[in-house]
Amino acid sequence: MTRGVAEGTVTAVYRRWTRSRVRPGDTLTTAWGVVRIESVTPVDPSAITDADAAEAGEPSARAVLASLRGPADAPVFRIGVGWGGEDPRHALSAETDLTPEQLADIAARLARLDRRVRHSPWTHEVLRAVAAHPGLRAADLAELLGREKDELKLDIRKLKNLGLTHSLDVGYRISPRGAAYLASLGT
Question: Are residues 76 and 106 in the same domain?
Fold first, then answer.
């Protein structure tokens, strides 16, 4: 879907939700880039046409209806989407010549993440583990760290949002920015 939005061939998506999960003006950052939410409109599913389906990158209205998940009695929403640009995390993660101010900002952000958890600080431990084990599956990395897999994946996403890690098809790797940060610590 995101590729179609980036190419301009997909301008709408259809979702069946008990309530709308997005609002006009929201943005979603995906692996392809940023998708803007331009409109959210409840629709009668029986009124979806083949032309509507084409806007969603689907071959037919029947295909759109078949793709809808969720409770059958839940409303269907037409979500107008547009391209918001490249994923800003890509440019951020490519930075390697970090200033003292940038290093201090990263350290402060990591400290805030560490303070928000009930268990011990985790950010530096996870960064070092990702750096030491590129491509390691999330389940294996979680076992190595003594963590629950889904919780660890959320934490790594937080590091990715800071430009410190990259997601791979399987596992993760440290980004150039993350490597530069760790190097500044003598790691």
Answer: no
